[in-house]
Amino acid sequence: MQHIDFSYHLAPPGQETRRNRQSPLRNPLMDLLQAVRQSGSIAAAAKSVGLSYRHVWGELKRWEQGLGQALIVWEKGQPARLTGFADKLLWAERQAQARLAPQISALQAELEKTFAVAFDPAHQALAIYASHDDALVMLRETAATQSLHLDLRFCGSVDAIRALNEGRCHVAGFHAPWQPDANSLVARTYKPLLKPGQHKLIGFATREQGLMVAAGNPWRLQSLVDVARAKVRYVNRSPGTGTRLLLDQCLEGLGLVASDLMGYAHEENSHTAVAACIAAGQADAGLGIASAAATHGLDFVPLYPERYWLVCLAPALDSEPVKQLRALLGAPAWLAGLQTMAGYTTHNDSGQVQSLRSMLPWWRFKSQRTG
C-alpha cells in the first residue's frame, strides 16, 4: 500500500496560475506519465513540463526502482510508451481525483477564504452551495481576481437549495430542463423548496446535458432508449443531483424503469467522475455535460438543453457580494470566456434578477373572479 501526502501552493498576487481542472492536486510522477503518453518521447515530455531530458529520464528511472515496476517501454529507436502498469496507475489516479473533486474543491475554497482574510481584510466572500458545474469553477477563478471570494461547495441541486433555506449559504446553484411540465418529476421535487417572492433567480448559463460515451461512440448510442436496448454499462449520478432527477424524469417519460439500465445503481458524485469512469473503460455511457466529456476525450451526444440558475433569498440581492457577483456575470469578459466552454451558451439575462413565476411554469396566478 503506497503512502499519500498532501501539500498546497501559494501564488503571490498577480502570479496566479490557471488550475488544471482535470488534476486539482498535482503529482510530479503523474504529470510525467501524462506528458510521455501525449508526446511519445522523453525529450518532448521533458520540454512540455519545462524540465531537462536528463532530469526526466532520471526521475522515471528512480520511480521505477522505488515502485518495483517498469513505467516506460524503453526500446531504442521506438516511441516511448507507458507500460500496462503505468497506464493503470495513471487512470487510477485520475479516477480518484475525479471522484474527490467536490471535496478537493471545498478544501481549496476554505484555504483560499482563510488566506484572503489575511492578505486582504476588505475582500468580499460569498458562500455558494451548488450542483456540480465546470463553469462555476471558472467563475470562482475569475471572481478571485476581482477580490470576490466564492466559497464554492458542490453538492446535489436539492441539497444546495436546502442549504440556502437553512442559512448555510448565501447563494445556491441548480439546473432544470427548459420549461419542464408542471407535473414533471423535476417540478414536483423543486417546487416545495422554492417560494415565489422569497427566492430570486439570477441568470447564469444555458448548457447541454447528453450522453457521454467513449471516443468514436462505438455502440452508436443516440438516446437513453438505445442505452437500455443495447444493455451497455451505464454510470449514474447520486440521488438528489439535478442530473439524477433529469434521468429519472426521462425514464418516466420514455416508459422505462431503473432496471432497464444496466448500471443504474453505479453512482458517481460529479460529471467529471462519470466522464473519468467512462474514459477508464469501467462504463460505456452516462448523462453529463459536454465540457466534462471534452476534458476526458469522450464523444458527446446532446439530448437535453437546460438552464442553470443561481438562486438567493430576496434580501440578499442588496448585499455587496451578491451585487458584485451579478456585475461579474454580466461583464463582457466573463460572457466571452463562458462561450469558449464546450456545451455552454450565454444570454443577455446573465446576472439579471428573475422571478420564479417568469422562468419556471410551476406556479399559476389565481384567476380573477368575473361577474
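(ticket continues) Second input and output from the same batch:
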Amino acid sequence: MKRLVLVAACLLVLAGCKHKQPETPAKAGVDYTQVVVPAFCADSAYRYTADQLAFGNRIPGTKAWEQCAAYLTAKMGRWCDTVIVQDFKTTLWDGSQVPGRNIIASMRPDAQRRVLLAAHWDSRRWADHDPDDANHKAPVPGANDGASGVAALMEMARAMSAMPPSVGVDFLFFDVEDQGVPEWSEAYDEHSWCKGAQYWAQNRHVPYYTAVYGVLFDMVGCPEPRFTKEQVSRYYAPGLTDKLWAAAAALGYGGIFVNQATDPILDDHLYVNQMAGIPMVDIVQNSPETSFFRHWHTTTDDLESVNRESLRIVAEVTMKTLYGDYPHMP
C-alpha cells in the first residue's frame, strides 16, 4: 500500500512537469568488460554498513545521528579533497521541526565537469510497514534502507581516491529522506519525504553547482538484488538509465539489472532532477512480490538484509559506467 501511495504521489508531481534538462550524449561502443576501475572491497562496504548501525537509529536530532554524522564526515575526509556539512532545519508531516545535515564530499572540487553520486543516511523513525502492529511506532534499523547505499559509496570513495576518474566526483549523503508520513497517520503530504534533497536542490553547497549526471543508491544491499528502470529515471535521464543497464548486461548482471520499465518512485532523485536540473537515475530495489523488499520499513531491516556481493555489483556497474565515460588519466 505504501508503495502505491508513493507511486501515486510521484505521478501527480510528474504530471505537472513540462521541462527536463538535456543529457550529455553517451559514448558509443564502450566495451564495459574492458573498462579499468579501482578495486572495490565488499567486506569493507559491509563493515561500513555495520558501523552505521552500531551508533543506533540515525533519527535526525538524536545522539546516534550526531555520532554517525561525525563518523561519515571523518571517513569521507580521508578519501576526498573537501567535505562540506550542510546544516538545515525542516518541518515534518506532523508540524514538528527537526535538524537536518547533508554531507557532501568532493574529489577534484575545482573540476568544472562533475558527476554526482548520492544516498540517504538517516533511518526511519516509524516501522509503519512492520507485520506486527505493535511495532508501527518503533524505529527502523535502516540497514538496507539507507546504510547500504551510504556504505557502497564510502567504499567507492576509498577505492577511487587511489585512481580518480578524469572528472570531478561529489558524494552526497542526503538527510531526512525517510521521515515522511507514516501509514498509521491520516495526514497526507507527498512532499513530506526527501527533505534533505529538497533543501540541497534549492540551496546547493556550491553556488550554481551542476553535474553531467547523477546516480542515487537506495536499498542496494538486498540478498536478492533486483533493479528495474523506474519511470522518473527513464523520464529525466533515459540515456544514463540505458547506459547503466547496458553496462550491467555486459558484465553478466542482466538478471539483476532487469530490463523492465516500472512505476515511478518518489525518491531523492525526483527533486535533484526537477529542482536542480541534474539528470539522475535511481538504482533502487524492486522486489515484485512486496514493497521494495521484504524488510522495508520494519524492525527487521538489520544486517541480515544486506549482502556483500550485492553492494559490490551495484558499485561495479556504476564505476564501469563512470570510468567508461571518464577514464583514469595517469
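Agent notes: Confidence is low (pLDDT under 50) at residues 1-5. The chain has nine helices and eight strands. Closing as not reproducible unless the customer responds.
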